[in-house]
Amino acid sequence: MALNTINGFGMFDCHAHLSDNSFNDDIDVLLDDAHSKKVTDIIVVSEGINDAQKVIDLCKMKGRLTNKPRLHASIGMHPCEADLDILPKIIELIDAHHDDLVCIGEIGLDYAPHIIGKDSKSEVTAKLKEIQREVFVKHAERANLYDLPLNVHSRSAGHHTLKLMGEIGVKKVPWEIGVKKALMHSFDGKPKYALSGYTDFGFYFSVAPSICRNPGLQNMVKMLPLSALVLETDCPVLGPVKNERAVPAGIVTSCEWISKIKEISTEEVMKVTSQNARNLFPKAFK
Hints:
Blueprint: E1 11-16, H1 27-36, E2 39-45, H2 52-62, E3 70-75, H3 87-97, E4 101-108, H4 113-116, H5 123-146, E5 150-153, H6 158-168, E6 182-185, H7 191-201, E7 204-207, H8 215-223, E8 229-231, H9 251-262, H10 266-280
Parallel strand pairs: 1-2, 2-3, 3-4, 4-5, 5-6, 6-7, 7-8
Helix pairs in contact: 3-5, 6-7, 7-8, 9-10
C-alpha cells in the first residue's frame, strides 16, 4: 500500500543515529529519500561525548531545511559508554544546550553479557551495573530539571530498566522528582513488562524496521495498544536486513508491519504514532 500523509501526519522517527560516520557522505541524499517517503521528523540521539556536539551541530545545520525531515537533537550517554569520569562533560553539554533538546538520551541499562560480563555474580559485573544505574539517574535528574522526556535503551535489561525508573519515581506533577515521560527504544523485554510500562507509567515503546525479523517485537506490538507505540529506525542498525546499513526511509517497514499486525491502514498508523510522538516530544512541534 502506498504511504501518504493524512491530515498533515507523516512518520516521526523517534530514535536515529544520523551522527554515525557511515552517514557522512550521503546524509543529504538519505534525508531527501526519507522526505519523499513521508518522513516528517527525526530525533537524532547521541551515544556519548564523542558524538554529542556533532548531534547538536547536525540538527542546527540541517534540522529545518526545505523538503527534508525536521531534525531534533538529543544528548545522553549510552550505557555501553557509561563512565563516571566523563559524565560531567555530558551533563555540561546538556546544561548548555537544553533549549535545543527535545529529549535526553540515548541513556539506559545494557546487561548483555558482552557488555557486563558472563558471570552475573562477579564484582566486575556488579560494578558495571552500578555505574550504568548512576549514569541513568544523573540523566533523569536533568530531564526532571528541564522538563524533558528520556530516550531509553534497555537491551537485555528491559524489566530492570523499568524497575529502576519506578524506583526513581514517575513524575506526575511538576514538583515531584522522577521520570515524567519516556520512550523505551528497541525494548526487548517480555511483552507483559512493556504492557505494564505503558499502563502503570505511560511510557511509549518504539518499533524499528527489524520488526520484520523479530518475533519478540511482533508479539509486543500485538499486546500493546496503538496508543502506546511510536516509530523508530535506530539507523544505521536495526534495519530490515541484518548487518546491512539501515537508513531513515526504512521506517516505512515499521509502519507497514504495525499496520499488518493490527489489521489497520498505514494511514491510521501514521496518524496515531505521530500524535503519540507529539504527546511525548512536544518541543519538536514548537
